[in-house]
Design brief:
transferase; binds magnesium ion; Aspartokinase; binds aspartic acid; Carbamate kinase; amino-acid biosynthesis; 2 domains; VC0802-like; 40% helix
């Protein structure tokens, strides 16, 4: 069997949804399960709804109304018959959000966020399933929350692989014999049936979960780029498509910040030796990138750029050494403030990191660190990672840049730099 994943950009309007249905019909070679993200920028819009609701600004309904109208417009462009049941189904999904918004917010933000934002995937999957069915495909819509079981870390839920695998294996193979399954990325459910989300851009990971549990032959992530490139075209003029990539290189690239695939996606696929094809929904005939078992290293150096980096240098106040005790305290503070470390380095008397400038939670982290350590901070930096670096590639990225920190191992070089 195969798994296809379609992201927000692939279902951003009526024409795009028609294209996705066309790809499902024409590029499926086998039994197929389709994982879809929320349409266009819906997740961002719904997180604004959640924010306005929790802050009680009085504007949550207005923001929701926009999301609703936008979806209704797309529906009207897909279905000529205004009495098609899909219109009511989508309206009902939004009514459920309205019920939440009518009450005073009692629960924690992260929990409320997941209950509201998950609606994006619910409506996109219902619309895609209804349209594909309408165009003649035998399709069944399933609720991912019945299958992807998680703990209750809202907004960053951890998957219970054992329970998830058991449910998926019990129900889905039989349905796949007769139907193409359409389900949601990004969402799961706790054992008490509360909706959770798996972290932003988590739909790739959902697709990998289904593929792994169903022992899929392969999985295809359909994107608006031709495949995995050796750099983001946003930062680089001449990018090259990488046609084949090992799991290890793919894990390393995504870990260091290549945004083409969600970092959690690759490992479950590597464990089961399931090939991952990254390919363009704009040019579906082109074969894109295959990530699979290969001894081949990356054919060319790859570059990953992260802007808005903060360099934090932490030293014990009494200039004692940085040892296990301080390190575990420091790591705990990063973890509890949900801050991911992009680069780290320690010496006898200092521990330094580069992290994304995410605003508020950094301020809280710094306050907590300063209680025990001497902390210095430098903002506005860039972190450049080069996989399979050489001196020429380093020189190329260092034009008009000053190095703040440099880390190298055999394959990867990380440069934290400042513009000069
Ligand atoms: N819709 C979610 C997001 O935008 C999940 C995804 O797109 O993968 O983060
Ligand atoms: Mg997305």
């Amino acid at each position: 069997m195969q798994v296809f994943k379609f992201g927000g950009a692939s279902v951003k309007d009526a024409e795009s949804i028609k294209n996705v249905a066309h790809i499902m019909a024409n590029y499926k070679k086998d039994e197929l399960l389709v994982v879809v993200s929320a349409m266009g920028k819906t997740t961002d819009r719904l997180s604004e709804v959640a924010q306005h609701y929790v802050e009680q600004t009085g504007q949550a309904f207005t923001y929701l109304e926009e999301v609703k109208a936008w979806h209704q417009d797309i529906l009207a462009n897909l279905f000529d018959d205004a009495t098609d049941p899909i219109f009511d189904e989508i309206a009902n999904c939004f009514v459920e959000v309205e019920w939440v918004l009518e009450e005073e917010p009692q629960d924690a933000f992260d929990y409320l966020y997941d209950q509201i934002v998950s609606t994006g995937e619910m409506v996109s999957s219902k619309i895609l399933a209804a349209y594909a069915k309408h165009s003649g495909m035998p399709v069944k819509w399933i609720d991912a929350r019945d299958y992807v079981l998680t703990d209750n870390t809202y907004r960053e839920a951890v998957v219970d692989w054992e329970k998830t695998e058991e449910k998926i294996r019990r129900d889905l193979p039989a349905i796949l014999d007769d139907f193409v399954l359409v389900t949601q990325g990004f969402i799961g459910s706790t054992s008490e049936n509360f909706t959770t989300t798996l972290g932003r851009e988590g739909s790739d990971y959902s697709a990998a979960i289904f593929a792994s549990c169903l022992n899929a032959e392969d999985i295809t992530i359909w994107k608006d780029v031709p495949g995995v490139l050796n750099a983001d075209p946003k930062w680089f003029d001449h990018t090259e498509l990488i046609s084949e990539l090992s799991y290890t290189d793919a894990i390393e690239l995504t870990y260091y910040g290549a945004t083409v695939i969600h970092p959690k996606t690759i490992k479950p696929l590597q464990n089961k030796k399931i090939a991952l094809n990254v390919r363009s929904f704009l040019n579906p005939a082109a074969s894109g990138t295959f990530i699979r078992s290969t001894n081949q290293g990356l054919p060319i150096p790859s570059f990953i750029f992260k802007v808005n980096q903060v360099f934090v240098n932490i030293q014990p106040r009494d200039f004692s050494f940085i040892v296990e005790d301080n390190l575990s305290h420091i790591f705990n503070l990063f973890h509890s403030n949900r801050i991911k470390i992009n680069m780290m380095h320690n010496s006898a008397i200092s521990f330094c990191v580069a992290i994304d400038d995410t605003g508020k939670n950094i301020d809280t982290l710094l306050e907590e660190l300063e209680k025990r350590y001497k902390v210095s901070v430098e903002k506005g930096l860039e972190l450049i990672t080069i996989r399979y670096f050489n001196q020429e590639t380093i020189d190329r990225v260092l034009v008009n840049k000053q190095i703040i920190r440099e880390l190298k191992d055999s394959y990867t070089c990380q440069l934290l730099v400042k513009k000069i």
